[in-house]
## 1
Amino acid sequence: MNQSKRPDPSIVRKDRIYLTGFMGCGKSTIGPILANTIGYDFVDVDRQIEQAEGRSINEIFSEKGEKHFRDLERTVLMKVCSLPRTVISLGGGTMTVAENLEVILATGLVVYLKITPEQLFHRLRHRSDRPLLRTADGSQLGDEELRARIQLLYEAREPLYARADVIVLTDGTKLGLTVDSIVRRLSGLIE
């Protein structure tokens, strides 16, 4: 990684919280509630990319490809990694890029919103806005193909997500209880 791309080492790690986890685990829903609860700002990396590009993540993937999307994601991450007192919702694949993982672990506390593959299947099966859960031609996957794709991505990403400072199981847990659990687990870790 280029030295000028490294985050400033003076950044206080406890000053930002990264939410990570598989697509559909609740990062974009839990993030603003958590931020409001602890008096932090909230940034959603995917929404920042969509605003900058003027199109959806799905459109970016289909028109420019995953590499272009990951480059945009990296640019946004480098902008938000120094924001003070901020909860940052990462994309499901943000931590799969080694340089991103390095920045995330160096500049904030990471909370992994863990969900089982079966629960993910039920949450994602009727969603058409998840490019990694579609066929090469953009068609929706059948149920068995979707289960297999979720399992494959889950197995690849789980070890990266598990490097989080805090892991919270979100399966079947009410939103408020999940946020309360995160706040309790972060107590003493944030400023």
## 2
Amino acid sequence: MYTRILKPPHRKSFFLFGPRGTGKTTWLKTQFPQALYFDLLNAEVYNDLLARPHRLAQMIPETWQDWVVLDEVQRVPELLHEVHRLIESRHLYFALTGSSARKLKRGEVNLLAGRALTSFMYPLTAEELGRDFKLSHALRFGHLPLTFQEHDPKRYLESYVTTYLREEVQQEGLTRNLGAFSRFLEVASFSQAQLLNISTVARECAVHRKVAESFFSILEDLLIAARVPVFTKKAKRRMVMHSKLFFFDAGIYRALRPRGPLDTPEDIDGAALETLIFQEVRAINHYYQFGYEIFFWRTANGQEVDLVLYGPRGIIGIEIKRSARITDEMFKGLNVFMKDYPM
């Protein structure tokens, strides 16, 4: 088990969001070993609290003063009413985890505004892995914790994609057309670390553009993918308007991405490396509260910087290349960017 960088807030209730399998539950049990724990993936607990959310108060002893953990709280959003009341009336501290923000977006989270902080758990970072970090493993299998424990990490990732992604979508009733969604996942994987053209994805999936847009929203709500916007602040050149797409982990991207005889290692490994850097930057930025917003920069004529960090500490441009040799040509986009934004 690896020591995570993320630290819990001091005596303050909080939400902990993150994709399934990133280690939220393990982290909580390490940080709060004495907490009263309710696992909403447990059918008995789920059914009981779904039918009678008010029973939560009865299940917490009157004299209880330690933490209360609600794992996968998005499964019963109505519990947040009760959590809100218990924070106010009994001054309890709650840790609320979620692997989906979709149901909680429907106004329920606002009940806890100001009473619960929000934090995120991401795949393991190179810093957390220490000597166990290996670039070859990261590019093939990513950094989900179980890929370092499973005998066959490739099969685990394939199971994650087929069992979790597709079944979670089906169970949550996020779309009725599971076949189209499965095709969409494969097509979307070709957009990894690339400009996202939703119309093109829709056409290749044989669905309407609005359907493809809704599928992308599902991925974002499940915290499986993120869209990175183009950096346009005080732009001096004509910029592209499309966002970039990133699945949250290089291993998940590799598991989704079909591979055929015309694919070269550079096609897949290049996107995997850019994904790895993106997930590392996003995690470190959050854990250490650096406060950067994450963008990329690309002009209409193709000059590009892979990632741009913009925040109170300044502007950072990051160029990502997978090559045995470094040449001046690789920094062409970065040099143009630095002329527009001297750092």
## 3
Amino acid sequence: MSGIEDTQHLIGIPEWYAGKNIFITGSTGFMGKVLVEKLLRDCPDINCLYLLIRRKKGMEPAQRKEEYFSSEIFDLLRKSNPGQFEKIRIIKGDVLQDNLGISEDDHAELMKNVNVVFHCAANVRFDQPLRQAVEMNTVGTHRALQLAEGIKNLKVFVHVSTSYCHCNEDVLEEHAYPSPHNPIGIIHMIRSLNDGLLEQITPKLLNGLPNTYAYTKALTEGLVQTYDGKLPIIVCRPSIVTAVKSEPLPGWVEGTNGPTGLMIGAARGVIRTMHCNPDYPSDLVPVDTAINALIVAAWDRAQMQTNHIEFMNVCLSHKNLPTWGENLETGKRIFYENPLCFSLWYPDGSIKSNYYHHLFAVLFFHYLPAYLIDMGLVLIGQKPFLVRVQKKVSTGLKVLQYYTTKIWVFKNDKLENLPQKLSPRDRERFDLTVDQINWEKYLHDMIMGVRVYLLKESPETIPQARRILRRLYILDRVIVFAFYGLMFWFLWNYLEVILDSIGGFFNLCLGFTHSV
């Protein structure tokens, strides 16, 4: 972020946040929880965190607060400084409602008190219909920006975007890009057309973008640009956000999107093939690194005496990123040492750079076993399920393969330059190291985090899981040898018949040709 002299950064990050009131959308999401925990723990003198939380599954926001703070991610804070939880103020609302669904009294309080806004709310599902994706990602952001316009003492507005919002660009620079369409026009359109028409025109609107998530994120950045000169905004674009690297809880992860879902599916033996280029870098960024970047970027952006929008790509350098193939081999080795308690089959999948090789593997290693097992379940009076599971897996893999068969260069000069503006204390407290990650240790912690925090399988279950894995391996080998043996027997016994049939067919064709 150019134009800032070091003398303007003499105040440290915790000191700058001291006394500030912060409004956060998307606080119940994966990144949101890590952001809330980090602010409470390492900026202890903040005045108040306003969390926008909606009613969900019959639970009021106040009830969700208790469930929210029971998460393991807050264990360290609970032990070290439990009084910090008193600084939380729940704001009942929803980004899908006008004015964010906030009451008049709460709105007046926010207008008077808020200094910093972190807008993290988003629908990250790739397969969302266009209407829902626009309403959540684009209209929701519009409402947050409209709220920010009325805040009396706003220092900075942080909009969390994604590195893949302009994925038709091979190189993503840290600046604005043209919006795919007029955002306001698209908002009016999705509210005037029925679902059938929207579904028909969606491919034309996407115009090469892989899904509605990428499209609406690009559209949203276009909307944010209309506030250039009006608000002190920074747009942060994380790449693929994965488990905690260092603190507060190494390996902690929530949700099954992206790499986490792939890991679980592969470890359970459900996913046995994936279309992917093993030599391409896996653009992962640990969630604690991403959150540190957001917090520091807000502090840095607030020093600028301008309302010009800034952009920062929150990504690691390719020189330090493992490839998809390296991740697979490391992950398989770690999972074999620490397998899951429940697997449908022996986890022995692989990635295929050739699409047709992948399709062949899907047919023989996904669908064929699924149909055979479901037929067996029907015969014994049980409900079949595996074909249905594999159809969902195939849909998910088709969405993800766009990202695993392409390569991008995400410029990250601003992220790499940020540590130079920090004091030694803040460099340690808000670690932005992007070139010294021990990926072997990180993947081990991530896999153990999936076991413990996501699947609730304690380390004590590993010996039993290893025994189950050995049995699955033996069963897998027996069935594979039996399959190839059956194929050999079939060819040995019927090869002559098959060849005679082929020869007869060709003779018939030749005879027909001569007669004509």
## 4
Amino acid sequence: MAPRPPRIDRTAFGVSVGLIVLVCAPLALAPQAGGALVVQAYESLTERFGLIYQWATLAVTVFLVWLAFSHHGKRRLGHEDSRPDFNIFSWMAMLFCAGIGAGLLYWSTIEWVTYLDKPPFELAPNSTEAVEWAATYGIFHWGISAWALYCFPAVAIAIPYYRQHAPVLRLSTGLHALIGRDGYDRPPARIVDVLFILALVGGTGTSLGLGTPMVAACVSEVLGIAQTFGLQVTILLVCVTLFAASVYLGLERGIKPLSDGSILAAIALLAFILIVGPTNFLLRSGTNSIGLMLENFIRLNTWTDPVARTGFIEDMTVFYWAWWIAYGPFMGLFVTRISRGRTVRQLILGMLVLGTLGCALFYAVLGNYSMHLDLSGALPVRDIAAQAGSETAIAQSIGFLPLGTLVLAVFALVAIVFIATTYDSASYCLAASATRNLPEGTHPARWHRLFWAVAVGILPVTLMFIGQEGGNDQLRVIQSATLVVSLPLLVVGALMAVSLMRSLREADRESET
């Protein structure tokens, strides 16, 4: 008898869609009040829970390093004779593109502006120390700790899915040892899966809300047209169409080749900037930043700014940790799906080491290039960012290169493809989470994947609208939305840790018998 095709989980689907509409509609109808409310929630939550985000991030990082080098690290995801479905390049390309999106292009190029003007550790603005930390802090925020927050859900979901044959691929799969095989249709598991869907839609909304205006600024510079809200929506529709087509085609024919192509294009772009840009400065500053981050890794993870209370931690570090936590469950599901045949150690080290190195490369090249333009007086990047916005500063920095118009067009194309590869992966995971039965080797229905590809475009339009039309700081609104949707996942993460430890102990008992 042929296996039954995957069926939609009407409860998870209906509740999730209903809540998304209930959240987006009031924000769109009252953008000024909605934006102010979201920002107020951000400030309150960072004050009360910011320290918990820092503790959780450090604990997860230490735990994963221990797990990778323990005897559990040798366990294979799947049967012991299973081999990886994808080669190392395609596997890394898919998880890297899924995890970083256009947000990496945005922040790696412009994040140093914040740190140079308002440096950490009460350093003097524009000082030599501030310059060094401006080139370093972004690498930390996109480094080992960030990828640990991505990796933990992947491990917590992959082990029960492949080793204990969990019947579904959802966030609640990470609670398998607590809820059992019969617990996936009960209220606790349903609540967890709905929380995941809401958090992922919120997380993807924030990244699209950053990447789309940046692409619009590039298009504006190339074509010489005004950068308007309508242009941003048009760009967003192009991105949604692209990743809808990709997710409809599936992993092998859609997501995999798109990820491979985007990584190759990004490598070519970085190589061009490294060669024609201030090569010596890029190499020296990048090397210095890696050393500075490693030397102060514990300090960076535990600095809470308890005396001066400058707001640096709340505005940047807590925002980033919240962003990774909001995205973490999605990465857990997607990485689980593409990691059959790999060992737990390969999974952890691949994400923590290769993911960190990939992000560091973007910061070392793009960030140091734009910072050098400003420090050398070639282009007042900080003034442009203050007067016209960060996305315009990014576009003008890239356009300052030789063959600037062509390079800017390539940069915009890479950003669009990065957006697409992130959200086709997200759409796949959303469809999987709202599917009732999805055993190993099966996929959600195509129409279901296509629906979520369109649905994830709703929130970023809303966020851009309340940021632009509601008179609010668009970046602040996006940061606030990220934190709000990530908070419930802290509780889910703690439960997943308990479940994972039970699964590991059960695996030890089975190996002894």
